[in-house]
Amino acid sequence: MEFRPDARPSPIAGTWYTGEPHALSAQVDAYLAQAKINHAEIGGKVIGIVSPHAGHRYSGKTAGYAYRTVQQDARALAVILSPLHHYYAGDFVTTAHSAYRTPLGDVPTAVDNLQKLEGFLADAGLELIQVSADEEHSLEIQLPFLQRAWETEFRLLPVMVRCHDAETLQTFARALFESIQDDNFLLVASTDLSHFYPQETAEQLDAEMLRRIQSFDPQGVLNAESEGRASACGAVAVAACLWTAKLAGADRVQILHYSTSANSTGDTSSVVGYGAAAIIAAE
Questions:
Q1: What's 170's DSSP letter?
Q2: How far apart are CA 70 and CA 190, in angstroms?
Q3: What topology does CATH give the domain 4-281?
Q4: For residues 258 and 244, what is the distance between their CA atoms, to the nearest angstrom?
Q5: Strand 155-161 with 77-82, pairing
Q6: Which tens digit of pLDDT belongs to each residue from 80-136?
Q7: How confident is the model at residue 144 (pLDDT cuts 50, 70, 90)?
Q8: β-strands 155-161, 92-95: how paired?
Q9: Per-residue pLDDT, 283
Q10: Is 189 helix (H, G, I), strand (E, B) or coil?
Q11: Average pLDDT over residues 216-223
Q12: Measured between alpha carbons, how far is residue 179 from residues 42, 79, 126, 235 in Å?
């Protein structure tokens, strides 16, 4: 793998979230402070989280619940698995940049871990593709929350997942775990839930998807859309995250918060659903 020396420029700062650093810090801090988490109920180590990826105005409150669970538990490595809303060839896509840039500063890319991941995937006959200056929002939108929740330097292992095949995703999860198992890491699955249904319908669909996530059922998450039972634009990222978390010792998932875009817009005629969850290992 070859990495450019520059940071990936943000294509969404100033639109999907504020581009002014002090205002961004204050907004994210407020989302974290508003999230009321009973850490005694978590009752274990948070191996991973599921967090939405709409503009902060819409999904920031729900995302705050996910990141509040690890606010006092900074990690050295953040592994963010997201969908890819733009076309690139390949099932697994990562950055060619040495860092990701947000208004809060640069987050260095975990080059060594990505090189390990590339090697493990190659051994399994899979490829990790690199892209430069991509437009994907669903991965970057998570970074300001990590930057404010931890306030310490961490490295980023970003993978945008396009593969829908369960066997391939499980192979990816094994390769990913092998490449990060020696690090103090957090897994992040970036996904929104149903899109553009009336509020009542969205709540029914989203309840089913969240049930499958809470059941720690990655295959069920993948099957939901084909069965017509539920949908999530990042279902493949969630499934890969759940399979990786199982390998890391996680044994349960706790749903933390649910909302829709109607909470911020007041329009219940066509909404997007957002959910936050913690993936937990008993201590």
A1: H
A2: 16
A3: Protocatechuate 4,5-dioxygenase; Chain B (3.40.830)
A4: 24
A5: parallel
A6: 999 998 878 889 999 999 999 999 999 999 999 999 999 999 999 999 999 999 999
A7: very high
A8: antiparallel
A9: 79
A10: strand
A11: 97
A12: 27, 11, 15, 22
> Please, which residues bridge with residue 172 across strands?
none
C-alpha distances (whole Å) from 66 to each of 57, 99, 118 are 16, 24, 29
- How far apart are the C-alpha atoms of 283 and 250, rounded to whole Å? 10
Tokens of 73: 């538990």
Q: How far apart are CA 77 and CA 206, in angstroms?
A: 30
Residue spans of alpha helices (H) in 142-194: 143-150, 166-180
Domain boundaries, the chain: 4-281
147-159 tens-digit pLDDT: 999 989 999 999 9
Instruction: Report the chain's C-alpha Rg in angstroms.
Output: 17
Alpha carbons 237 and 80: distance in angstroms, whole number:
9
* CB-CB contact of 222 with 114 (8 Å): no
| Predicted local distance difference test score (pLDDT) of residue 89 | 80
Give the model's pLDDT for residue 211: 98
State the pLDDT confidence band at 38, using cuts at 50, 70 and 90: confident
Burial level of 187, CB count in 10 A (0-12/13-18/19+)?
buried
Give the Cα separation of 178 and 184 in Å (integer). 13
For range 172-184, the mean pLDDT: 98
pLDDT of 40 over the 80 cut: no
